[in-house]
Sequence to fold (400 residues):
Amino acid sequence: MKHICAITLFVAAAALDGKASGFLSPSASPLTAKSTRLFAKERGSGYGPPLENISEAVGNTPMVKISNRLCPEEFLSAYHRITFPSNPLSSVKDRLALAIIEDAEASGELKPGQTVIEATSGNTGIAVAMMCAQRGYPCVITMAEPFSVERRKLMRMLGAKVIVTPKAGKGTGMVEKAKELADKHGWFLCHQFETESNWKFHEKTTGPEILNDLAGTKLDYWVTGYGTGGTFHGAGKYIKANSPDTTIVLAEPGAANLIGSGIKTERNDDGSPASSHPAFAAHPIQGWTPDFIPLVLEKGLDQTLQDEMVEIPDGAGVSMSQSLARNEGILTGISGGATMWAAVETAKKAPAGSVIVAMLPDTGERYLSTPLFASIDADMNEDELEIARSTPSFILEPAA
Ligand SMILES: Cc1ncc(COP(=O)(O)O)c(C=O)c1O
Fold:
């Protein structure tokens, strides 16, 4: 018997204007589509009226069905919700940055010209730098040493200053540094791990987008990991309220099973972590599971939004991300691979006909210097050299 696992990969993507994005035929079930062309906006019809500025391009990311090449035939057919292809800075954190800056502008907490600072594993910093560049705020980012250098360069390209903190201080070190700098200089601290703006924006946008795009088709499983927990808490809350029979699957690295340990994070008065979590160990899934349980995540866990927990084994995120690239043409980061791995495991035990949506948080291009690309050569390998030598002209032989 074939299992139908609809996996929607979510990648933080450029928000298309609501009118311009999504499926042309919202009443039709994507499950019956022979080709996505039947439902995608017709090419050549244009995006819609010009956007006022780049921040209008945040949200409304597409959902993509995966083929049967990714998991064994008998478990097949998944939908992925992809968040990267359309968010302007290619990650789920574009939503968070927009929400934090706009809420702080509206409350008056962020003053014109004031410096904005945040601690980040990279994607938030890139998104915050984008928002600051667009609105004219100076931007300072603190980021721990191990996160990929591509991220530092992207933030600097967007005009931000990047303060790199020592590896030994882990995530709590970069968070503490950001707070110290904000206090000393009177800068606006984004507080992504604590602020309600984070999960509320996902409740208002990500959750509704998923259910709307499924157009009445029942969502059986929704699979996500966590960094701040904003996606899990906000979209999860909306999905539980509007599709109560959906099973929410929350994944974390096996090497850093903070939730699984049952040990709570001690907090300062502002909700930030007071110390490093004892169950934390370094893991390769950048953007997931810092060395503390963020307040935003904890408040989602307190509502028991999660129905199932999955631990990701070492290496599974990298290899699944590579499989997604090679088999589906979907280029996502290590956390996207890890989420997809959890979705495929879910598909293996799901009843036939299940619809599964997995969240893909960012693009693989952000990982060129990381283990994700360690096996990818820049020079020609033997196979490529053989092809080059199969005709007489322009053969670049390797240096002796
Ligand atoms: C690569 C990556 N994956 C996943 C996440 C998790 O998203 P959230 O913070 O909404 O839990 C993040 C957040 O920083 C991220 O950068």
Observations:
- Residues 91-93, 121, 123-124, 225-232, 286-288, 333, 335, 361-362 surround pyridoxal-5'-phosphate (CB under 6 Å).
